[in-house]
């Protein structure tokens, strides 16, 4: 079944409240939507989010790369969708970087090919259940405000929280301590420092988590993305598992992190890998090395988050789910993935299961 057209468009959706990390503050998200149409009229959807601070990809950059490079250079129009692995590799080879643009197009191709075979994407990829257990992020704020934000989340059924730290290291232990006091001992607490600490700060902060018995499940990206030596030093010095996020984009990055035993866990995001196939490759490499993976997302809308959910269902080495971004969006024009408290439920229909909501009013 041949590809007959690929279109790209941009929409913006407001957030419920501003989302703050050590790197940025966002009040709305921009969503780049890619639509691939096959000769029988089947439409595949893909999406991307711009995150210049992490991937370097802006909205204009993603649109331009999709329209002027990815679609044109390998001439995707007229190719057979069944050749998805070869098409995915062609997309990766079009240019250096630009992983968000590559992901948007490749997700749309996966949506189209699994619709072509009349299977939900998770089944096409070899998975079974359509339900995942999610965590919820507490964005960076004053310690008291973060503790106050935590309690209603637990009352709404979340048992795993992800705490954003890293902008003001002197009060980061207080943040976690107040949150632990507020939520009690049975809630899992994940920490994401978003590159905000030096290796020495990270070691001292994590030792304090340990001394105060704050029971932290993992610490994500404590230091700068390029600082692999820093990650290794931290991993050697503390007991809490260390996870790579911004240090991991490609399967090649994964090979290095795994070979050097630099971290205990990997965080895979489609906007960093450039799509599903490379994410599968990373999860496979990590499995061979005995390292489990988390699936995460940027501040993305539900099209690409659904793709990440399908992938997580299908790969047994993806054991931790951090896909709460759509819960931050006030209103978006898609249906097919439900977020009910800590559960993610994917529609049991072919492809991503994502459709435009006809009654959408922004
Ligand atoms: Mg992270």
What does this structure look like?
The protein is an alpha/beta fold. It folds into two domains: 3-118, Enolase-like, N-terminal domain (Enolase-like, domain 1, 2-Layer Sandwich); 123-356, Enolase-like C-terminal domain (TIM Barrel, Alpha-Beta Barrel), CATH 3.20.20.120. The protein contains 13 helices and 16 strands. The strands form four sheets. Strands 5-6-7-8-9-10-11-12 form an eight-stranded parallel beta sheet. Strands 1-2-3 form a three-stranded antiparallel beta sheet. It has a three-stranded antiparallel beta sheet with strand order 4-15-14, covered by helices on one side. The protein is globular and about 60 Å long. The mean pLDDT is 95.
Keywords:
single chain, about 350 residues, alpha/beta, Enolase-like, domain 1, TIM Barrel, eight-stranded parallel beta sheet, three-stranded antiparallel beta sheet, 13 helices, binds magnesium ion
Radius of gyration: 20 Å
Arithmetic mean of pLDDT: 95
- Listing every helix as H and every strand as E from the N terminus to the C terminus, the arrangement reads EEEHHHHEEHEHEHEHEHEHHEHEHEEEE
Bound molecules: magnesium ion
Question: Which helices and strands appear, and what pairs or packs with what?
Answer:
Blueprint: E1 3-20, E2 25-38, E3 43-48, H1 59-70, H2 84-93, H3 99-116, H4 121-124, E4 131-133, E5 136-138, H5 143-155, E6 160-164, H6 172-183, E7 188-192, H7 199-211, E8 216-220, H8 228-237, E9 242-244, H9 251-259, E10 265-268, H10 270-273, H11 276-288, E11 292-296, H12 302-314, E12 318-322, H13 325-328, E13 334-335, E14 337-340, E15 343-346, E16 355-356
Magnesium ion (MG) binds next to loops.
């Amino acid at each position: 079944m041949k590809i007959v057209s690929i279109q790209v468009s941009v929409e913006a959706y407001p957030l419920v409240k501003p989302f703050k990390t050590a790197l940025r503050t966002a009040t709305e998200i921009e969503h780049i939507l890619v639509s691939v149409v096959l000769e029988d009229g089947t439409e595949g959807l893909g999406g991307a989010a711009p995150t210049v601070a992490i991937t370097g990809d802006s909205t204009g950059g993603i649109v331009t790369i999709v329209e002027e490079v990815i679609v044109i250079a390998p001439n995707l129009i007229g190719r057979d969708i069944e050749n998805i692995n070869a098409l995915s590799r062609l997309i990766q080879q079009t240019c250096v970087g630009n992983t968000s643009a590559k992901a948007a197009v490749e997700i749309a191709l996966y949506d189209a090919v699994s619709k072509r075979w009349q299977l939900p994407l998770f089944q096409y990829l070899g998975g079974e259940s359509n339900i995942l257990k999610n965590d919820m992020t507490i964005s960076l704020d004053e310690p008291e405000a973060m503790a106050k934000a935590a309690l209603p989340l637990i009352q709404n059924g979340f048992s795993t929280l992800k705490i954003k730290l890293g902008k003001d290291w002197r009060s980061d232990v207080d943040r976690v301590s107040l949150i632990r006091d507020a939520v009690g001992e049975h809630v899992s607490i994940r920490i994401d420092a978003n590159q905000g600490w030096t290796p020495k700060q990270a070691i001292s902060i994590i030792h304090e988590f340990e001394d105060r018995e704050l029971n932290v499940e993992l610490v994500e990206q404590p230091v700068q993305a390029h600082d692999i030596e820093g990650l290794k030093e931290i991993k050697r010095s503390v007991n809490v598992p260390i996870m790579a996020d911004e240090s991991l984009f490609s399967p090649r990055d994964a090979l290095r992190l795994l070979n050097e035993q630099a971290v205990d866990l990997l965080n895979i995001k489609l906007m960093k890998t450039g799509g599903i196939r490379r994410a599968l490759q990373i999860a496979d490499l990590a499995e061979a090395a005995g390292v489990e993976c988390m699936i995460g997302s940027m501040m993305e809308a539900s099209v690409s988050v659904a793709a990440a959910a399908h992938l997580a269902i299908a790969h047994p080495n993806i054991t931790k789910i951090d896909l709460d971004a759509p819960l931050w969006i006030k209103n978006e024009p898609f249906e097919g993935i439900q977020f009910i408290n800590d559960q993610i439920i994917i529609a049991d229909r072919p492809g991503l299961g994502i459709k435009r909501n006809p009654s959408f009013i922004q």
